[in-house]
Specification:
Layout lengths: L4 E3 L18 E6 L6 H12 L8 H7 L7 E5 L8 E6 L7 E6 L11 H6 L1 E2 L5 E2 L2 H8 L4 E8 L5 E11 L8 E4 L2 E3 L13 E4 L23 E4 L4 E4 L2 E4 L6 E2 L4 E2 L5 E3 L5 E6 L2 E6 L6 E6 L2 E6 L19 H6 L6 E5 L9 E6 L6 E7 L10 H6 L1 E2 L4 E2 L2 H8 L4 E8 L5 E6 L2 E3 L8 E4 L2 E3 L28 H5 L22 E4 L2 E3 L4 E2 L13 E3 L6 E2 L4 E8 L2
Parallel strand pairs: 1-2
Antiparallel strand pairs: 1-5, 2-8, 3-4, 4-5, 5-7, 6-7, 8-9, 9-10, 9-11, 12-13, 14-15, 16-17, 18-19, 19-20, 21-22, 23-24, 24-25, 25-27, 25-38, 26-27, 28-29, 28-38, 29-32, 30-31, 33-34, 35-36, 36-37
Length: 556
């Protein structure tokens, strides 16, 4: 049993008992002495006959109601308190008149409460409760009170302790104890020898901040017997007994302490916290696209899906796919996102879009669906890749490693402004490394329903608006065409007075161009800023294309 606290005082009326019961574990207060002066006696006598007044405390109940000396629930109203309220009066100990302010019996009521709950009170007068700091403040400031704690141990031993003076401040003073009188007790000596925050009782296996699960065994000497032990919600840290929330690896949102050397992942796998040397470190955490957030064997974390290995944050496939052809050959015949690892690739495996029509195994390197993403990007963006599932560039660095692990062919699929589907295939396609500015080293023979003017780009270096690698001396082709591309210099020194969609205005009387296929241009732009591709009739072009997709697959 845990201690309880009671209070008693003197004046009052309304002596109506609502519940009667007994308890051996309480904390209570009562007013310390009866009136001793004539004035005090007259005042008590006056309140005795002014029957419209409520009793101020359980001492008043006892003195005003000679026929109601049993313990039970009564209604009181301390001086200044706005409304009367019920209290439990204990008349079975210490001469009676004790106003019970707290009782603990069996742990049925949680006492780990907020400030406002301790202020207003909680629990049930018939079992376990806290009367409330606000009521206690009014009670103890209307007279001088004693504080009594009645305690019963699990072995049936009981004792009490009283303090010949007790009072607390109001809310403005944070309900601070203003005074507490001399101690009197019939308790055995051991009751005063337990360190701070410890209680005397039957010892259990005491856990520590470093080992909150008790995996290293018991950390107290009195296990199974009686002695000083930490109460529920407290753990050992060295020789001290502290609240779990004071441990260095306490996670507030989960209300738990992480054992040293272990981790905790929150409910949606967005944060991981680690404990090392009783120090908590938390960081952002996220699952791979090939993983799920789950609890397995009591451990919550990211777990890779079937067919993938890894730690949940990174889940490369169990089988190593070099490209979408390997994915296709492994009998994955659905279009979708798959993880690949090209030969020699120095980074982590990465996701690509795979297309399985037209023979299957196509790795998509570029896609345009609308104008929501700008393709007028700098060198670094084209190197590393950018965009989303609707509009993207895979990245020149990835493209270099892909096209140098085996022989590849290149395919364009486009949808014209009129809605017609067209395509072009080239039997070879290879991109050199960044040291050669991602030169298009190979481009094979053409077939399909679009033109073949990409051959002008063969052997050309890749250019962006901030990295001018074209051989044109007149202007920066990537800047004027507003796209990263393998621009050429064959026509850039010429002026034309007539205009096609692949021209841009060089001056008021001169139009020029650097490419005859510009699949990275401005979506639905004008004057050479459009996405366009040449078709078979001479100087005829598909302009303002609705959809563009570039992809590669092994040619042999």
């Amino acid at each position: 049993m845990e201690p309880s606290v009671t209070v008693r005082a003197l004046f009052a009326f309304l002596c109506t008992t609502t519940i009667a019961f007994t308890s051996s574990e309480e904390t209570s207060i009562h007013r310390r002495s009866s009136p001793s002066t004539t004035e005090d006696t007259q005042m008590a006598h006056y309140f005795f006959y002014q029957r419209s007044e409520y009793p101020k405390d359980c001492r008043d109940v006892q003195s005003q109601c000679a026929t109601s000396n049993s313990s039970g629930v009564y209604i009181i109203k301390p001086d200044g308190f706005e409304e009367p309220f019920e209290v439990y009066c204990n008349n079975n100990v210490g001469g009676g008149g004790w106003t019970v302010i707290q009782r603990r019996e069996n742990g049925a009521v949680n006492f780990n409460r907020s400030w406002s709950q301790y202020q207003d009170g909680f629990g049930f007068l018939s079992t376990e409760f806290w009367l409330g700091n606000d009521k206690l403040s009014y009670l103890t400031n209307q007279a001088v009170y004693e504080l009594r704690m009645d305690i019963e141990l699990s072995n049936g031993t009981s004792f009490y302790t009283t303090y010949k003076g007790f009072g607390i401040t109001d809310e403005w003073g944070q309900y601070k104890v203003t005074h507490i009188g001399p101690l009197e007790s019939n308790a055995p000596t051991f009751s005063s020898t337990c360190p701070m925050n410890m209680i005397y009782g039957t010892c259990t296996c005491q856990v520590t901040c470093e080992d909150p699960d008790g995996q290293s065994g018991c950390n107290n000497d009195c296990f199974g017997t009686e002695g000083c032990t930490c109460p529920a919600g407290f753990l050992m840290q060295g020789s001290d007994c502290i609240s779990a929330s004071e441990c260095g690896c306490f996670v507030a949102e989960a209300n738990l302490v992480i054992p040293s050397g272990q981790t905790y992942v929150n409910d949606d796998c967005t944060q991981k916290c680690s404990c090392n040397d009783n120090q908590l470190t938390c960081a952002a955490y996220s699952c791979s696209t090939n993983a799920v957030c789950d609890v397995r064997d009591g451990v919550r974390q990211c777990y890779c899906n079937e067919g993938y290995d890894g730690d949940g944050e990174n889940c490369p496939p169990s089988e190593s796919y070099r490209d979408c052809q390997d994915v296709y050959d492994a009998d994955h015949r659905q279009d979708g996102v798959y993880t690949i690892m090209p030969t020699g690739w120095p980074g982590l495996p990465f996701d690509v879009n795979c297309k399985m029509e037209n023979g299957g195994g196509w790795t998509v390197i570029q896609r345009r669906n609308d104008g929501s993403s700008s393709f007028d990007q700098n060198w670094a963006a084209y190197k590393n890749g950018f965009g989303d599932s609707r509009n993207f560039w895979l990245g020149n660095e990835k493209l270099h490693y892909l096209t140098n692990q085996r022989n590849y062919k290149l395919r364009f699929d486009i949808t014209t402004s009129s809605g017609s589907a067209k395509y072009a295939e080239y039997t070879e396609f290879q991109i050199e490394s960044e040291s050669s500015n991602y030169t298009m080293n190979k481009l094979g023979t053409h077939s399909g329903t679009t033109g073949y003017k990409l051959y002008y780009s063969k052997g050309k270096q890749f250019s962006t608006h901030d990295r001018d690698n074209d051989a044109c001396d007149t202007f920066n082709c990537a800047e004027t065409h507003k796209s990263g591309w393998w621009h050429f210099d064959y026509y850039c020194s010429y002026c034309y007075s007539y205009g096609y969609c692949y021209y841009f205005q060089l001056s008021s009387s001169c139009q020029s161009y650097c490419t005859l296929d510009n699949l990275n241009g401005v979506y639905n732009g004008v004057n050479g800023e459009m996405i366009f591709s040449e078709f078979y009739s001479h100087y005829q072009y598909y302009c303002s294309l609705q959809f563009v997709e570039m992809k590669i697959r092994p040619s042999s």
